[in-house]
Amino acid sequence: MKNIYNFKTKMNIRTFISPPSKTNVLGIGVSRTNYKESTDFIIQSAQLNQSCTVAATNVHSITSAYLDPDGYGEQLKRFTLVTPDGQPVRWALNLLRNSDEEVLADRVRGPELMLQICEQAAAKGISIFLYGSKETVLESLQIKLKQKFPELIIAGVISPPFRPLTPEEDAAYTEEIRKSGAGIVFVSLGCPRQEAWTFEHRYQLKCPIIAVGAAFDFHSGNIPEAPAWMQWASLEWLFRLCKEPKRLWKRYLLLNPLYLILLALQLVKLLPIDEELTVESGTIERPEQAIDRRL
Fold it and tell me: Quick check: 29 and 92 in contact, CB under 8 A?
């Protein structure tokens, strides 16, 4: 699954790991990956000060991208790493896999991925930045993360207003993140705002930018997580619907059935989708570019 390239320069030897391969799900390339591979790729990108965009993608994300192919869909398909956050997305990857591809035994859920990244970041001295959510949530989140990972360096936090930012505000926030020296930026603004923010800042911040959905709320204790058995039984949606019916009923009662219908049409090759899978050129620095800078 990994392609590893070694390039020797006069200064040293640098190793680059290419992002995991992708499978086309409703026109969006979803990465065939697991927690370890995703974490390793993100940590190495951070160590190399290398920009990459990461989104933990569930049924809501994939279906929304399909319904908005020229907007949100166009952005998401260019992400470096699109992990299968939801169980139905993992099912799709297994149903659509090639004969030489392994069956994915587990999904790569945003909240769990965030914890694994923080664990490795703490061990390697890589600082993180938290962007999004409410100030009270960020306060609790910092306490919880430091309790779990005492060595974790939190370079800063920003709770942006829940409205479109002015160009001046956006520039100020971006500069604050840049000056903090953070090696990894976690973004929790809700879909599709967090993916849009990640995409728009991919060249301004030379580090991994990771859209992690409700991870801030879960890890801060602001919103309870579904029991493990419900997650494995693909009933997490039911748990969250019961907790937040007004906000989530459209997502789960309309988009979930639509996703299953669209996926069935793709499986029988009746769904018109863009077959080309792309990662935007320049999002991941090519090895020869890094070498050119150093010579």
Answer: no
